[in-house]
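User: I'll paste a sequence; please echo it back and then give the predicted structure.

Assistant: Echoing your sequence first, then the prediction.
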Amino acid sequence: MVDDHRAPVWGIERILQDHDDLEFVASATTVTELLDQTTDLDVVILDLRLGDGTSPRENVARLADHNIGTVVYTSGEHPDLLRSAARAGTLGVVLKSAPEEEIVGAVRAGGHGDTVLTTEWAAAIDGDPNLDAVDLSPQLQRVLTLYASGGTSISVGEELGVAPDTVNEYLKRIRQKYADAGRPTRTKLDLFKRAVEDGWLPMPHRSRND
């Protein structure tokens, strides 16, 4: 389980301990920390908002690279983050307020690689008209995240080992893909917004004074 608060972890441990077919293997505050402990996992119960600033899409994809499925465990108050996880292929969503039998059923289904069908999951998908509307290659994803995070064509090129003109060509392709999807990116701020919407970058956290 990945959650940076202990209470949900304790709750899941308690719920699962009464089920002999389910084993709680490990917990961590980040996906990196969990993978450092073990990759011998069938499914990870994943909180959407983590203190390390990673996006749900990034975390689901990283776990998938190790053939580990994910079930999002959330309060349900951030539908944009749910959609980010949906784009990355999470198996489903279960609310932290759900009954114990629903949580157990979700973990059991996820452990078998089955989709976890819940109302919240359906709402996250149905509420996103642009789900999978823009398909970026790994290289274009990297260019978008670096540039939208404040980089320049020169700094992005240095990071990726390509010429600035090549970066500009990549940016043209990215803008064209979003334009074709009806989501124009005329400015750098637009690119940042699209990167957040599609889960390539984490949603900015509001300060306590906002």
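The first strand starts at residue 43 and ends at 46. The chain is about 50% helix and 5% strand.
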